[in-house]
Amino acid sequence: MVSKQDDLIILEDVSVSYWQNNVGVHSIKDLVVQRKNPFQNKTILQNISLTVKKGESLGMLGRNGCGKSTLLRTIAGIIKPQRGTVEVKGTFAPILAIGAGLEAELNGYENISLLLSLYGTNKKNGDPLGNIREFSELTDEVLRMPVKRYSSGMVARLAFSISLANEADILIIDEVLAVGDQGFQAKCMEKIYQIKKEGKTILFVSHFPDAVQQICDKAVLLENGSIVENGDVEYVCNKYSQLF
Ligand SMILES: Nc1ncnc2c1ncn2[C@@H]1O[C@H](COP(=O)(O)OP(=O)(O)OP(=O)(O)O)[C@@H](O)[C@H]1O
Ligand SMILES: [Mg+2]
Questions:
Q1: pTM higher than 0.70 for the full model?
Q2: CATH number of the structural domain spanning residue 108
Q3: Atom of ligand 1 at shortest distance to CA of 70?
Q4: Ligand nearest to the CA of 226
């Protein structure tokens, strides 16, 4: 594959599908007499081609269920596409930011130490645990609780704070603003902006076009698993707002 020197992420003609329960199968009769298949293959991403250069921030917009998180998981290598190629020439921050990675039965502290040991810590950063605790603003009492008892805002605080402690080339941010309160949203935006200025590559999924415009240089709009717009961030955000 020919790829330009500074392209960090290159997707060519990527398609992803899942086997899902066939909602048209209601009974044994449907299965045996009418010979309906209990599963159906549903296409989630179709013919996705995109490139992200080193230091670029790409926004991903679209309605609920259009395939944004699936696209992030595919780029991160969690999902293998049925068709097409995914090339990533860099390391990822912990996958937490796209909703995976935290162990529900473990408490906050246990999750932090597990993930810091898995992903490695920022060597410039002397006290990763202290930084995570400070950024998340989670109390000692909360951090001693199993994560399964956290509110979704608490999960987002812990997950995002751990992902910041990583020294990866690419930061993945999926909806961290959606569940955080106003204070945490503002703090996250400031931090993400700072990371952008440091020259990191960012993949930013959000339902807030204003936030996408603040962080991103370019954006894609997904509809039913396809990219329908790809270009200047302001143009794509306008197209997104026109959907509703
Ligand atoms: N593990 C799975 N098995 C089957 N279908 C799935 C699975 N995960 C996601 N899907 C389907 O894939 C489609 C896209 O889901 P995805 O989570 O990527 O959407 P999204 O754009 O991130 O939505 P949202 O804005 O709500 O976060 C949806 O129709 C969803 O039902
Ligand atoms: Mg999603």
A1: yes
A2: 3.40.50.300
A3: 18
A4: 1
